[in-house]
Every structure is written in C-alpha cells, then in structure tokens.
Specification:
- The protein has 291 residues and is of the alpha+beta class.
- 37% of the residues lie in helices and 24% in strands.
- It is built from six helices and twelve strands.
- The protein has helices spanning 52-64, 79-103, 153-159, 166-183, 214-233, 265-290; strands at 3-9, 12-17, 20-23, 28-30, 34-39, 42-50, 110-118, 124-128, 134-136, 143-147, 191-197, 205-209.
- It has a five-stranded antiparallel β-sheet with strand order 10-1-2-11-12, covered by helices on one side. A five-stranded antiparallel β-sheet has the order 5-6-7-8-9, covered by helices on one side. A two-stranded antiparallel sheet has the order 3-4.
Length: 291
C-alpha cells in the first residue's frame, strides 16, 4: 500500500509520498512513487498508488513522450490538458491489460496525484482516477490524498487552508505522514518530499527523508509528546450534575436518553407457568409406568 498527499496553495505546491509497496512478515518492497517532468517552460510532479505494474506502465508512457491524441506532457498548452494526457495514458494501459487482469482476478487499481505549472499559468493540482477521469483542487478543497489516507487526514482538515504558507504546509504534510506511519505498517520510509515554489519551474526544494533525518525525527518525537500533553490537559468527564458546564450526564436536547427495555408483566408470568407445568407432566408419566 502507500500514502501520498499533494497540497495546492497560493504560493505553490507540496508533494509528499512514501516508498513502501507491500509489507509482509518476510518481505518489504520499496519503490519510488514520485516522478518529475521538467523543461524550460513547465514543471510537473506525479505520485501514484495502486497496482505497481499498472502505475509503472503509465509513468513509462509519459516519460517516453508517447503521443496520446497528438499530445504529450512536452507539447500541451496548459496544465488541464496535461491532466488529460495522464488520464489518456491510464486508459491506454487499461485497454492493453484489463482483459488479462480480469482473467487473473486482479482489479485494475491505480490512483494518481498530478500537478505542476506551465509558464504563464498558476500552479494546479489534479486527482486522477483509474478510469482516467479527474478532479482539480480548488481554494476550498486544496489537497488530495491517495492510498492510506484516513490516518493523516485529521491534521490536514484542522490546519490547512489555501493561504497557508509553504513552510507551515510542509510541516502539516509531514505530521500527516508521521501519523500514517505510526498506525499502518503498509506505509514506510524513506519519504520523497517536494516543495514547489510558484513560478520557479524548478524543484528547488526536493529531498528524500529516512529515519536519520533530524527534522523528521523531531516531528515524530514532538508530535507524540504534544498530543499526549494536549490529551492530558483536557478534563475527564464528570457525572455530577452540580458541575456547571462540565457534566457529561446532561442528555441531548433533541433525543434524550436511550430507552431501556425491560420484560413486561405478561412475559414474566408466561415463563413461570411453563416451569409449573413441566413437573406435572413428568409425574403423570411416572404413574403410568408404575401401573
């Protein structure tokens, strides 16, 4: 499995991906899931999750510059058309491989985060699905996740906004990744991190992080400590109604308490009568046997 997160902000883009593809008792696979495409007037980044053979085939089509409907990443005019090219590459691999995959009982499973900038345009970010269709990030929804997304989502929802600075967003993405690493064995180090500054058209801030990276070590240690500290600073629930504003025993205004069901009087009597009849039957049977 994997975890990748992409952020689209007013000052640029942030891409972060792990490198683990499977995790078993006796085998751990490590493959890079981030690919970069650069020329004088454009820069793109691609991150992938899903079946590794499928995502590698898609990446190879894009790297070779194969023309898809007379377009590739090097000749398109805008980032939206670039996302269309990536989607067409997904569809081409599907047409080639889906019958064999279906016969083998394997789903055509891939999910991609793709983004970047063409000179004269703003930075843009897309989430491309296994059908080749896609959606684009907006100021209201400024990030995408693929793979094991649930563990790292809360911090993004609470902290991230379109106006968030790149440095703060980078810290947020790394905490999101650390939360995922801590809860899921199928996501693992090393990590690939790219912070793309608007209009640079270059990967000026690109690094691969492992367990020896001092900043990521600090993130891992302090985030756990701060969470425990924040948890301990919150008061425990009290069941006393005399505590103003702090009692957990106040029922919900709309629904009240959950009703407690008890056996009715008729149900209780029915059980007693059955027990009274049973011994009488056994006694009659004994009298017949004696006769």
């Amino acid at each position: 499995m994997t975890y990748c997160v992409g952020l689209c902000l007013k000052d640029g883009l942030v891409f972060l991906s792990d490198t683990r593809t499977n995790a078993g008792v006796d085998q751990i696979g490590t493959f890079r899931k981030m690919s970069l495409f650069q020329s004088s007037d454009r820069f793109f980044a691609l991150m992938s999750a899903g079946n590794l053979a499928i995502t590698q085939a898609i990446k190879e089509i894009l790297l070779q510059g194969q023309l898809l409907n007379c377009k590739n990443l090097w000749n398109i005019k805008n980032a939206h058309d670039a996302a269309v090219v990536v989607g067409d590459a997904v569809k081409q691999v599907y047409e080639r491989d889906h019958a064999a995959l279906e016969k083998a009982g394997i789903d055509f499973n891939c999910n991609l985060i793709f983004g970047g900038q063409i000179k004269g345009e703003r930075p843009r970010l897309f989430n491309i699905y296994s059908a080749g269709n896609f959606i684009e990030a907006t100021p209201e929804t400024c990030y995408f996740q693929i793979g094991e997304s649930k563990y790292g989502k809360p911090i993004l929802d609470r902290v991230l906004g379109f106006d968030t600075s790149l440095d703060l967003a980078t810290k947020c993405a790394l905490i999101s990744m650390d939360s995922t690493l801590n809860s899921n064995i199928s996501v693992g180090l090393p990590l690939d991190l790219l912070v793309y500054e608007k209009n640079s058209l270059k990967p000026n801030k690109l690094v691969t992080l492992d367990e020896s990276n001092p900043y990521f070590q600090m993130i891992h240690q302090l985030w756990g400590e701060k969470l425990r500290s924040a948890f301990n600073s919150i008061a425990e629930p009290t069941w006393s109604t005399s505590t103003p504003g702090g009692s957990i025993s106040a029922p919900a205004k709309k629904m009240g308490l959950v009703p407690i069901n008890k056996p009715s009087l008729s149900m209780t009597k029915g059980k007693k009568s059955v027990k009274a009849i049973a011994p009488a039957k056994k006694k009659k049977a004994a009298v017949k046997a004696k006769a």
